[in-house]
Amino acid sequence: MSTVTDIPLPKAKREIIDQAVIRFAGDSGDGMQITGSQFTNTVALYGNDIATFPDYPAEIRAPAGTLPGVSGFQLHFSSTDVYTPGDAIDVLIAMNPAALKTNLADLKANGILIVNSDSFTENDLRKAQMTVNPLEDHSLDKFRLFSVELERLTRRALEHLGLDAKSMDRCKNFFALGMCYWLYNRSMDSTVRWIEDKFQKKPLLIEANKLAMKAGYSYCEATEAFQINYEIPPAQLTPGLYRSMSGNQALALGFVTAAQKAGLTLFQGSYPITPASDILHELSQYKDFGVMTFQAEDEIAAITSSIGAAYAGALAITTTSGPGMSLKTEALGLAVAVEIPLVVCNIQRGGPSTGLPTKTEQADLLQALFGRNSEAPIPILAASTPSDCFWVALEASRIAIKYMVPVIILSDGYLANGAEPWRIPNVEDIPEIPVHFAKEANSPNGFLPYKRDPQTLSRPWAVPGTPGLEHRIGGLEKQDVTGNINYEPLNHENMVRIRAAKVAGIVQDIPDVLPAGDPEGDLLIVAWGSTHGSITAALKSQRAKGRKIGHLHLRHLNPLPANVGDILKRYKKVLVPELNMGQLLWVLRAKFLVDAIGLNKIQGRPFKQAELEQKIEEVLGV
What we know:
35% of the residues lie in helices and 21% in strands. It is an alpha/beta fold. The strands form 5 sheets. Strands 11-10-12-13-15-14-20 form a 7-stranded mixed beta sheet, with helices on both faces. Strands 3-4-2-5-6-7 form a 6-stranded mixed beta sheet, sandwiched between helices.
């Protein structure tokens, strides 16, 4: 019996290439995210290194076919190391005129352009604010244009199934996916398995989507327009077991792992907000691992429920984005005052206010550092890649528990939604996270809730209900050691300074940092967060040209590693690229009196490698 993958070997010329960047673009209802995710999973299983960049529309229900409703998914896959989703794209699949207009500027000259010609009617062009049909006016002549009647061909392939026209049209994304599988010589088997699992209760839709995908593959095989397909060999990755991992998935798994290593229940209290909501969705699947998820009615209830869970002896987290951080601020000060282990994840997005809810930005650093009333210092960590989010979750949990302090993690929309191969670690190689609950009174006069560990300045963690460990809790200032409410001026200053010293003392647990590239030279690039990939690619390119450049990427932003100041002195110039107006730049100038130079972008998009290289050459005067 034949299957969907029983397809003749292609007769076209096969060309071996190192890498490709492909982007699927269409209306938000065209299934571009599913199409991109399935193509990503396939090339990842084949062994290519990957980086993805899903680009969601901000409007929940933008009118179909309009510019605000365009959804995109970009994938860079390669036989060598991949650091970014790519600057320019080699292949663009555009499902309508709005998708073409929004994305065409990123397509390379002579790049492959596949368009759904059925969606280029006069009405479609009007919705995309076009006055002429680009398929007819020769404006696309510099590209390899393939105008394909995706809707008509999909309907023809499925007409015998008895589906209505709307249901058949929904399968056109799988027709396009089948074309891409032919173009890059990839098996459809993993997508077939996904379809069978996704629609297991709807056998007709299983058959329809499989047939549409096979039809797209066969169309490329049969038409004379497609004369070349491509082969990208597997990458030479470090041996091990890999899976494709997004940043939000990695954070979720990191917290589950941290809770297991600490022997604690994991509690998440969160209110849904883009782009952080997926962490709540992901963790809700881990009830068998002692995970409790609570979808609160608002951001304040979310963080205060997590504060309560931490007080009760759980590893407690809350997740949000910039607007939600603003609402959590007062309660975050409460967590500072009562000194409990809480991890707050800020998945940054464009702002201010609602701003660009589906676009990326890293403009909440100063909010994390100073965005609370009074003196309320908090340790801050930032993830640099999607898979690094796993390790940052572990590190934040360790610091929160060891030092009895709330910790902020900064991620962003680019890391949250982007994916890369993640080498699954051996569980036994991940260190345990020691937890020491108070079991008995720590003085002859009873329990003293603020009697501190002399090394870490952390206070005891006393689980409510433990006999003899009753103590006061709340936001009013505490008397040192006893925890009684106290308004004395000198006591308040003492408590403020102790809390600050505790956070500053975390530096003893932070390893010295080493710059990538040259250990000294003409230029040091200092950065944090999701700029890591594009900077790494630019650094490799510039050093290959003989330039002496280093790259210092900071995971710990408060406190900073102890040797940062010494490293800054080894280079003639310092460049700080950020997706903001210069927030780390401000910190470095203030703390180290270094005349650093900023490269700032606030467009809702990550840096391109070319943008960084241009600035590097400008700073070096070459």
